[in-house]
Structures are given as structure tokens and as C-alpha cells.
Amino acid sequence: MPSRYKEFYKNEVVPRLFKETGYKNINQIPRLEKIVINMGLGEATSNSKIIEQSVAELSKIAGQKPVVSKAKKSIAAFKLKENQEIGCFVTLRSDRMYDFIDKLINISLPRVRDFKGVSRKAFDGRGNYTLGVKEQVIFPEISYELIEKIKGMNITIVTSAKNNEDGYKLLKSFNFPFRN
What we know:
Blueprint: H1 4-21, E1 32-40, H2 49-62, E2 67-70, E3 85-92, H3 94-108, E4 129-133, E5 153-159, H4 164-173
């Protein structure tokens, strides 16, 4: 069964953007390409158990197993050794990507305390959007009683848009909660 947001994109977003933007070809309309969720865990240098917990939490949130990232070189000031595990990330595509953005917009972001919307300034110049989340407990899969340490994550939404304005129009048509 296809994702609810994938159907929403095909049936509502594409026709609306085609009318609004004035593109000559339907394939020029921006689309979501992938979503990358990254947890950088600097405190993992002193406690290796944090990596295991973060991998378990990120796999619950994303629905697939994350990749553990390792340090490329040693940095003595940060007590970091080469090939030491320092974070984890997961790349979502296709149905999992649409399911995640549906969950992010409709369930997780409204659970943030004092949420007034996300900034319009977090675009990178090429239509991609990066959102920082301070707590992993906003996701319904994470039980507050079972976590030992609150960890944040970066969520990058990669689009096929050529510029920030097209990326904004795409995310706005998905009902992304931007601040006014």
C-alpha cells in the first residue's frame, strides 16, 4: 500500500505547483528525493553505550537500521581517536521517506513545547531544508521512561528544487509548519 503522503503529492501537490509555478513540463516540478536523519554524539567518546542506545532509538524513529559514523582522524583536544564511533545517520527514500515526513509534520513537530513553526531561513540555497530537533522524545516511538540521555538530531530534507523559493513552495504545499 503506497504512502498517504505519496498519494497526496501525486494527486494534490503536483497539479497545484504546476499551475502556480508555470513550468512547461510536469517533470520540472520539485519533488522530495531523500531525508537524512543524523545524530552527532560527541559524548560517545567517553561512553560507548550511548552509540548503541542512539542506534536503537534512530531505528525506531526511521523504521530502518542506521549507519554508525566514525571519526576520520584523531583530534587530541576532543579526546577523539581515528575510527572511533561518534554518531549515526539514516537515509530514507521512497515510501519510508513519505511516511516519515507525514509523521514529522502531523505528530512530532506539534509535540514540541512552545512550538510556533519552523524558520524559513534554514534552506541551503539549492532548495534543501535542514531542521534541528533538540529532543528525540517528540517522536511517538520513543518512551520517555526508557531513555537515559536526551539527544538531538538534524533532519535534512533533500529536494529536486533548483532554488530556495521552489523548495519552500514544495514544503509549504506539504503543509510544513513554517513561521509567518
